[in-house]
């Protein structure tokens, strides 16, 4: 995934057409390698393992995952959106102001 994120850094802010062109030249190869690896790995591991479950999930949603290769308006992931919408107060529920320790509220036992 690191290779894909590197490509995305180079095309961030570019036109959708440019993003698609660069992705087709670079990211498409990486994505194809991922799917080839998953298809090779799946028969060699326990079908009940978490890894097998994750691989089957990824393979079953391949068309959705690959959509960013042909649509320049789609982000590879939603991290940018998540960071933009995350409130700064989210840490207040888990840490007492300025102490670095968990707040009493988050550590109360639920009855």
TrEMBL record:
Residues 102-111 have a biased composition (Basic residues). Residues 1-87 form the Transposase IS66 central domain. Keywords: Plasmid. The keyword Transmembrane helix does not apply. InterPro entries: Transposase-related, Transposase_IS66_central. The keyword Zinc-finger does not apply. It holds the Pfam family DDE_Tnp_IS66. Residues 85-111 are annotated as: Disordered. Residues 87-101 have a biased composition (Low complexity). This is Transposase IS66.
């Amino acid at each position: 995934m690191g290779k894909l994120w590197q490509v995305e850094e180079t095309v961030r802010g570019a036109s959708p057409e440019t993003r698609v062109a660069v992705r087709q030249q670079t990211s498409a190869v990486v994505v194809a390698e991922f799917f080839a690896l998953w298809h090779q790995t799946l028969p060699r591991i326990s079908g009940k393992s978490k890894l097998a479950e994750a691989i089957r999930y990824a393979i079953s949603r391949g068309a959705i995952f690959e959509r960013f290769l042909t649509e320049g308006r789609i982000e590879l992931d939603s991290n940018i959106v998540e960071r933009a919408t995350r409130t700064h107060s989210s840490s207040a529920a888990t840490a007492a102001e300025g102490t670095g320790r968990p707040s009493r509220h988050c550590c109360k036992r639920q009855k």
